From TrEMBL, chains A, B:
Keywords of the record: Aminotransferase, Pyridoxal phosphate, Transferase
Matching InterPro entries: Aminotransferase_I/II_large (IPR004839), Class-I_PLP-dep_aminotransf (IPR050859), PyrdxlP-dep_Trfase (IPR015424), PyrdxlP-dep_Trfase_major (IPR015421), PyrdxlP-dep_Trfase_small (IPR015422)
Cofactor: pyridoxal 5'-phosphate
Organism: Pyxidicoccus parkwayensis
GO function term, MF aspect, one: transaminase activity
Keyword Repeat belongs to the record: no
Keyword Phosphoprotein: no
Lineage per the UniProt record: Bacteria, Pseudomonadati, Myxococcota, Myxococcia, Myxococcales
Protein name listed in UniProt: PLP-dependent aminotransferase family protein
Residues covered by the Aminotransferase class I/classII large domain: 55-392
Signal peptide: none
Length: 400, 400
């Protein structure tokens, strides 16, 4: 019947050989066990998904569109919706500059594949979304880490000094709003200075705005793409504002980039799952997005406030944390010397509470964030957040 | 407001700079114009999609599964369904060897990313699915083309002689059933000899079985994966048997490959669109797949017969073509000297009929298939097929 080849090893490229079933994967399994009070993952609140609206949209699409399940070209009307959404973010663009993707992660992955030459360097903040580092994995790439401080923001002097030293990174990857993992947003002057630096040194910027539509205060600043239309490659997503499992996102790029993205995407997965694109389009056509976003912002604001209040009550002396105006995360810094990676096992065991250790967001696995943790506030109701932080407080107190 | 960076060019890796809006893209636009009798694309018949069953499945998923729109882990029950489907193809595997993808194209893309080292060679048939060549585009890769003849099949002497010469390709890419573009299937002895060669020379095989469940005769041969479980990396898909826009496919690989695929997929698009996976699962749970497949095979068999009959009537002297027992395509060879690429413009203009020129399937754009064309029989009803071939016959006759 079936037989065994006499190969001792799998046929893998050398970088792929180094992929190991990660400790993180094990950790994720523990974190998501039932009964765990988890502030760990970046999950939106499932109970707030517009499930009924999506059901109606899916039914409409299947009943009315003969080609809904067939291969089909990109949906122009959905790109037009994105243009109008971007306008609300202060960004002017055309439907020809919008490219639809299977979520923000794919947007980043495709951009990196097009923009990064093997051997080039890239500039990253020293607290950075781990999924972006995963994108870089197959490339032999020098990672230039610049400080992004929870309180003082991106260290633009450091950015300038790296550029002055002659480094020419393929791009800088950053998030101006609802930063993952810090939860911070950049000040207006910082946005302007960063864009100026990028122009002066012709450094492209990949701007990840996955949380940009989740704003909790009256003052909302424009993303970098609003200040610079050729040098900033903008990545957006419906995952955090509608639902992740639909896998619909977009990028806004110069028009000459779009057919290249289409070519790379074609080779990746033929084309975006147009069935779910159609569901998103039908939902947007029904005019329910604004109402849904208002509700979402209101509820997430309440949850953020619950988390900040609980931290005031339960965190040990010496701990500091960010006060986000957008996104889903609060970043906690314990006094230097604390080891949140080691502490997580104890937190799970003794108090069934989970967070993500700072180290998960360090460039190339460095230890500079080993005393930090990322807490999510979007996925749990306020009472559960309060209970989780109380538990976390006990774990930290016991550390002693 | 927005300003312009003084960069004369986009920031692109050198291979990406070479991507051009392809002549093929233009051609595809002409081909899909309303009123064109097109036998060009590999489209399943949309009128045969189980749209009602899918609608019911979508409604069930949204009504009954709270996490349907949330991030979620891979669906074990769907992998178990795949195992049972593979059994019907003569393949024994476990759910732990099944990895779910966003369609077959993603399966191939992820496998290539893991298996191919820059600078390595790969072995391809000289008539090969163009989407697979697209996957290779970003890599500096030597393409070893071996003859796959429409009548004599894959030239295994040539495969052996290349291997004997010392070449050690990263893999051979092939399709044993319903070959795209040839429409042919391999004889049993050829399958056995190929697997033996692969074992002897430790050459991995990527087996693309996207059309393997579309069989029109009583005798169905097992895919290569049934003969070899470690050296054959199998790619399957629901796109041709359910519906492409759902974007659900799978690979069957050694278990130690699965966490590596998960890592690369995570960095590509976080995870498969589990919403559409859930719809597929719910449809399979309803037990309607077999009935649907029976209907599909019956109708596609009728359409294949209509195409073959029309070719007998309308093809010029000297033309030959394949008689497929599976898949969606017939491969036509005109006498040497014919140029089907040049002819297509005339076919569209004078008779509004379309096919794909053989050159689209040549390795590295070679001209060895310039006198050939690929005709699809799944997407049009028999009467339309007959009309399309009549028109094509007139175009070829006028060619003189």
């Amino acid at each position: 019947m079936s037989s065994s080849m006499n190969t001792p090893e799998l046929p893998l490229a050398s970088w792929a050989r180094r992929i190991a079933p990660s400790a993180m994967q094990d950790m994720l399994q523990n974190i998501t066990k039932p009964g765990v009070f988890s502030l760990a993952l970046g999950l939106p609140a499932a109970e707030l998904f517009p499930t009924e609206g999506m059901g109606q949209a899916a039914a409409r699409v299947l009943a009315e569109q003969g080609g809904a399940l067939q291969y089909s070209a990109t949906l122009q009307p959905l790109r037009e919706h994105v243009v109008r959404m971007m306008e609300k973010r202060g960004v002017k663009c055309t439907p020809q500059q919008v490219f639809l993707t299977t979520g923000a992660q794919q947007g980043m992955n495709l951009l990196v594949r097009l923009m990064l030459e093997a051997g080039q360097s890239v500039m990253l903040e020293d607290r950075v979304y781990s999924g972006f580092q995963q994108v870089l994995e197959p490339y032999q790439v020098k990672r230039l880490a610049v400080r992004r401080d929870a309180s003082t923001g991106l260290d633009l002097d450091a950015v300038e000094s790296v550029l002055k030293s002659g480094e020419r990174p393929a791009f800088l990857y950053t998030m101006s709003d609802g930063h993952n993992p810090l939860g911070t947003s950049m000040a207006m002057e910082a946005r302007e200075r960063l864009v100026k630096l990028a122009r002066d040194y012709r450094m492209p910027i990949i701007e990840d705005d996955a949380y940009g539509f989740l704003q909790y205060e009256d003052t909302v600043l424009p993303p970098l793409r609003a200040l610079e239309d050729r040098g900033v490659f903008y990545v957006g997503s419906f995952s955090k504002i509608l639902a992740p499992a639909l896998r619909v996102g977009w990028v806004v790029v110069p028009e000459q980039m779009v057919f290249r993205l289409a070519t790379v995407k074609e080779s990746s997965d033929i084309d975006t799952a147009t069935f779910t694109q159609r569901i998103v389009l039908s939902f947007l056509d029904s005019g329910k997005l604004e109402e849904h976003l208002t509700r979402l912002r209101q509820e997430y604001r309440t949850r953020r406030d619950a988390l900040l209040k609980a931290l005031e009550t339960h965190m040990p002396k010496g701990a500091t944390w960010t006060k986000p105006t957008s996104g889903m995360f609060v970043w906690v810094e314990l006094p230097e010397g604390a080891d949140t990676t080691a502490l997580l096992a104890r937190a799970l065991e003794t108090e069934k509470v989970a967070y993500l250790p700072g180290q998960a967001f360090s460039v190339a696995g460095g230890r500079s964030a080993a005393h930090c943790m990322r807490l999510n506030f979007s996925n749990c109701e306020p009472a559960k957040i309060e209970e989780a932080v109380a538990r976390l407080g006990r774990v930290l107190a016991a550390r002693g």
